[in-house]
Every structure is written in C-alpha cells, then in structure tokens.
Amino acid sequence: MATKITSIDQARLAAGPRSSAAGRDVVLDVTVVLLEGGYASTAVGPIEVFHSAGVLWNWLQGDLSRPRFRVRVASINGAPVTSVCSLGLVPEFAIADIEHSDVVILPASGWDVQDQIANGTQLLPWLRKMHSKGAHIAGVCAGVAFLAESGLLDGRQATTHWALAEKFRARYPEVLWRPEKFVTEDGGVLCSGGVYASIDLSLYLVEKFCGHAIALECAKSLLISMPRNSQSGYSLLPMAHPHCDEKVRESEEYLQENFSRDVSIDVLAKRLGMSTRNFIRRFKAATGHLPGAYTQMLRISAAKELLEHGATSIQAVASNVGYEDIAFFRALFKRHTSMTPGEYRARFAQMTFGRGQLVSGASALSA
User: Fold this and answer.
1) How much of the chain, in percent, has pLDDT values that exceed 90?
2) Using alpha carbons only, how large is the chain's radius of gyration in Å?
3) Taking the model in full, what pTM does it have?
4) Mean pLDDT of the chain, nearest integer
5) What is the C-alpha separation between 70 and 291, in angstroms, rounded?
6) Which helix (DSSP H) or strand (DSSP E) does residue 167 occupy?
7) Residues 158, 295: one domain?
8) Cα 37 from Cα 65, distance rounded (Å)
9) Among 205, 233, 261, where does a domain finish?
10) Does the N terminus or the C terminus of the chain have fewer Cβ atoms within 10 A?
11) Do 217 and 293 reside in the same domain of the chain?
C-alpha cells in the first residue's frame, strides 16, 4: 500500500493550484489513475507529456525549468497494478488519498471493461466527487466507459475507440457519441479515441491550460504531433450491424461484388423477389443503412485500400470505385474520412509494408 498523503499535503492540495518558483506560472495538479489490466502507455504517455510541459523544451534551450503540472499516480486501492502486457506499475497513492486535482486522467482499460467497472466500484463515486469539486475528468479509449457508467457523460458529447462505439452507444444511450473525433470536451469531461490518442488528449489539455506556445514546445521537444482532430481515417467503415435476415445478407454480398457498377435499388429488390419499398425497409432495419449509403461506404473502403497502396492518380481511384465525377468523389471521401484522398494517401501509403497485389476488394476493382 502506498504511503498516505500527510495532513500538510492535504492542506496544500485543498488549496488548489499554486504559483511556481517563477512566480508567474500556475502549477496544476494532475492525477493519473492506474487500472488493473489496462494499457500502460495510456498512463505513462500522459505522465510524460504533463511532466515535460515547461520543462523539457526549456532544458533543451538552456533556459530555466518552469513546470506547469504536478503529476501524481494513483490506483483504486493504492496497490500496484499489472498492465495488459504484464508490465507492473506502482502508484504513489490510492484514489481515496486524493482530495484535490485539477485534472484526472483515466487510462485505457483492457477490453474486459465491464468486468473492470464491476470490480472498481470505488472509482465511480470518486470520479463524480472530483468533477463536482471542479476537476476536469478525462478518459482514454475503453476507459471512457467508466465516465459513462458514472453518469458524467449523460447528455454530453463523447468519443471512444471506433471499434467500441456501437457497443457503447447501445449500453449508454444517454451519451452523445462522436466516435469520429479524436478528442471531445463537454462540461469539464473529456474523452479520447484509441490507445495512442492519450497523447493527443494530453497535449490538448496542455494547450487548454497553458496556451498554444507551451503545447507546441512540448510537442517539439517530445517529437510528437499536435492533437489530431479525427479518427475517421483510421477506422474501418461500418458495413452493417449483425443481423439474421438472409435476403438482406444476399443483397449485401451482391453489392460487395458489384459496388463499382451502378446497381439500382429496383434491380436489387427484383433479384430478391421484393417490392422496392419493402426491400429498402428490410435493408435499413437489418444493416442500419440505406442501400445507397451502404454502397457509398463500400466504395470509400475500396478507395482507401487503393490509396494505402500508393495509387498515384486520384481520378483513376475514383473511376475504379465507380465515380466519374472526381469533385463529387473528393467531397464524399472527405465526408467519410475527414481527409481529402491526397491527404489520406500521404498519411497512410507509407504505413503499407507491401506493394504487391491487393487482397479482398482488389478482384472486384479489377473486374
């Protein structure tokens, strides 16, 4: 068990942010909460970003250190935790020891987040208490579920990892989910997307409390990018909800094989022996999308794959996936990914290890 905060510490913490030695900068308290079975980087990354603000850049420039944050590490009960990859992490405190914090960071839990919530009952009321006392509460990736479970996200905008969005939307319908965003802030509650979005979230908070110049210096000194706005380009486009409608599944398979052609809804309905109106109703009920929107997502998914493999001509990509109007294609692609085709290629083509034959959708594109 970690050592308890002394009465002197408690008095200092209750007093809130204090002036630094420089006399001009306010030092804010940040508490990073460790979770059993969580992702260590989503705790360590924020710790290092906040610790570096006003310190690392200054040191590199030969200037006096002017720390902007005081970082403390706690676990629910003060005991060491083991990360998802078996890395042991030792906290300084239990959450009950922390009476004041300007910022609370809740890292990403493992994928068994509901089990974590069930075992971490002390955490939820503590989060509510800290928020009521003015702390900014921030969750990373699956850790956002703790904020939703506590009720802090009800009626507020939130994000999480794109692969968890539908699951969380069904479990927490009062939350205004925005899974296309990397970082959201609403009413002093912040959320970030995937595991390494913890860095984006931390820099966002550095910029919020210290200004753009300090955040930029922090990013430069750590060789990381300034906060990203969208995770749309990283996600797999949602094709459909799981369903048991065999007729609709047959139409999905047909569209997946023929998405680059102009396939009318009337033709699809006739193939299945349905009226157009009944087909549209059943397709939407089963997949969550209208047939036209579903086809658009198939085309954008195929375009992303071509761009990831370094396709040089945006016009050729548009044509291969069924669009002759390149302006329309560009607009549609940006709506789905928050990037132009050129921007997407520049960001993701270098991440592709092989430049050989495309798989999966390639055969449909070459047909």
Assistant:
1) 42
2) 24
3) 0.61
4) 81
5) 53
6) helix 165-171
7) no
8) 35
9) 233
10) C
11) no
